[in-house]
Amino acid sequence: MAVPAAAFAQEQVAIEEVVVVGQYIPDEKRATSEISSVVDADAMSLTGDSDIAVALTRLPGISPDSSGKYVVVRGLSERYTSTLLNGTELSSPDPLKRSVPLDIFPTSLISSVLVQKTYSAEYPGAFGGGVVDIRTKAVPDEAFLTLGVSTGVNTESTFKKGLQYDGSGTDWLGFDNGRRSLPKLIADNPTLEGYSPEEIERAGESFPNVWSLDYEPNRPDLDVKASAGKAWDTEDGSFGFIVALDYGSELRNKNGIRKVYSASDATESGLEATQGNYAPDQCEEFGLPGEDCGVRITNWNIDLNMFGSFGWQINDQHAVKLTSVLLRSSQQQVEVKQGGNNSRDIANYTRLDWKERQLWSNALTGEHSFNLFGGDNDMELEWFASLAKAKRDVPLRRTYEYFYDDIDGVFRLSDRTDGNQTAFGAMNDESKNIGFNFLQPAYLGDMIVDFKGGASYVKKDRVSDYKRYGFDLSNVENTELREMIPEIIFGSVNIDPNGIILKEFIDASDRFEADFENKGGFVQADAQVTETLRVSGGVRYEDSVQTVLTTDRTTKDPILVTQRLDTFLPSATITWEFAENLQVRLGASETVNRPDSRELSPARFVREDGRTEEGNPYLEPATIRSYDARFEWYIGAGESVTAGLFYKEIDNPIEYTLKQFGDGELDTMANAEKAELKGIELEVEKILGQWGDREIFVKANGSYIDSESTRTVENFGEITNLVGRLQGQSKWLANLQVGFEDFDRGEKLNVIVNYIGKRIYRLGSTSRPDLIEKPPLELNFVYGRDVDLWGQTFALTFKAKNLLNESPERTQGGEIAEMYDEGRTFTVGVSTTF
């Protein structure tokens, strides 16, 4: 289409009209050959989201998972989504996931995020729901210094009593100062084998005597941000850098109930909470105050993130950039639950936890332009080399249980072998990634074709280890001692070869080593066949080997799992602009989804939500065939309407399910036989008009997703539904944003509504229905405005989250299984740029 430039006149000099011919592309969503969505820094600022995990849920077809750390794209869980940082793969600091938790990426460090929902050969073949490519901020055009601070309160947490314990003096920074470390005497000989009774006594006394809780008012939220950048020109080219620091601290209470059901003929629902009832009615049955029973959790979340980008623009044809990102997310978690089950009348269970997650990524990239074949079309070459290290430390995780004696009316510390436990977990993951991509424009007759190609090599190594210890009280005949607080019970005077004895409970499968190696390459062509028809297609080849080495917990024999995958992955997309600013896209592809190394190990882990998870060494890779169609109408700048259809066929999909574990249950995973997934996505972005200088907008999207998974008894055991919806998939998703922006005064207002339909959290088994999760309906409010004070411009913000005060809940057979109060959150902040 032709875009006329304005005619200018100055004094008596006239400049003739200039006509520039080109395609009008308002945003990246339209420019790309694939079906994608993009959220940039301005959009994230408008919604007031603090991390990427939340920001992406504003896009159609995307919802957060139950943890809030990952996203579910088109009904497929986080395992089907690959995460890239500036185009390169990352390691995960979570031993339970291959996917990178998106909540550790603060929006303050991000320039934009691309979510591509159709596969193209330039991306890794591990694709199901989408590719999330996080782009960090680039080198600045001019020097700047930005400082910002915000604080907030939560109606269920701030200034209210929370659960804490005596950790270390550096916890506020997210680092343990060594107080929780495994004592050297035990680290030198973790199994305690060969130690004399006296040495075992010293080992037991070497543990920090930290057990009891503190009930203290929770402090308000605090977030501090600082970033700076500069650029300058020299004879050797242009140089520039950006550095940024982001610190955050928040305390949150989660108070509620939890029930674990078993099948029963004695109740109308067919379920009875005999395997765990942590709710008021259990205490009332024994004459105790109802409020004494339930679940109380306090999470202290500390984030410390650093970012640096250093660029050298040598000339118009060559540039090199070094990007380094350090992301840390630490959590002190204290859980107290009181209730009972079929083998214990009333029990008080306490867990003290400290977790440190860290991701350190360093990438050196280059962009070059060469004229290899003459003419006007230069080849563009990009190369990259990255080293990413991820780790997760869980030092001094403590659990212990007191039982209620209804005859004497007292609680006594359990003398069972699992009545108290001290555990230490560590996971280290290293990922190396090198490769290159090229783009060569060419003419085939009158047709413009972009030829693309590239190759990459990825090597990942992971070591995970978990050590467990407990104090044996079987020699303690003094029942009054077990009525004391743990610091007295486990005092050095009572740890003795004839009294309380330290024992190790290390499971043979608690340690595993894994590595993953993947060699890949692709070729792709993107052709403007006619003025209105664009065709893109390619194929990717991947040769991968994944191994996991662990030990069988029963036989103590080594288990070596090796998975090889040698495959070609085709993809194609057709875009037809059948009228001005109206186009249709069609896409098809075949991709894979590999089990994670952790999932292939039978080791058991306690997740952050307190649930136990066990791997499955018999998992197989899944194969996904995807088909897409989307209608797009680009009305004008910032205005569009899209409507899409998608359909997926999955062989061997991996799903979470429940498994009997002692008196309760644990989570595990298995391959279903096949699954089908289909859905509709609608999105509208429209500027409604002006209110003074304010531009009023509305952004709305909705998705309907349906699926059917076919499972087998061989893989899932006595599962409740052999045919049913995919685990983790919601049928309905919807987002609505209504507000205004005044760009001259820096004023913005946004009212945000987010709806996520109920979904299967875990597949039911042994005659128990599926465990259903119902996320809360969220109503949020964001307002911001620039204010001039003392010759300086300050950006003021106010955010209100969960105004409806809804809480997430999980149900089973219509009965409440878990429910917590989350409360409303109010945040105010100020920032300025020098």
From TrEMBL:
Compartmental location: Cell outer membrane
Residue ranges constituting the TonB-dependent receptor-like beta-barrel domain according to the UniProt record: 340-761
KW Membrane (keyword) present: yes
Residue ranges of every copy of the TonB-dependent receptor plug domain listed in the record: 29-130
GO cellular-component term (any): cell outer membrane
InterPro entries on file: Beta-barrel_TonB (IPR000531), Beta-barrel_TonB_sf (IPR036942), Plug_dom (IPR012910), Plug_dom_sf (IPR037066)
Keywords on record: Cell outer membrane, Membrane, Receptor, TonB box
Keyword Membrane among record annotations: yes
Membership in a protein family: Belongs to the TonB-dependent receptor family.
Protein name: TonB-dependent receptor
Species name: Kordiimonas sediminis
Underlying gene: fecA
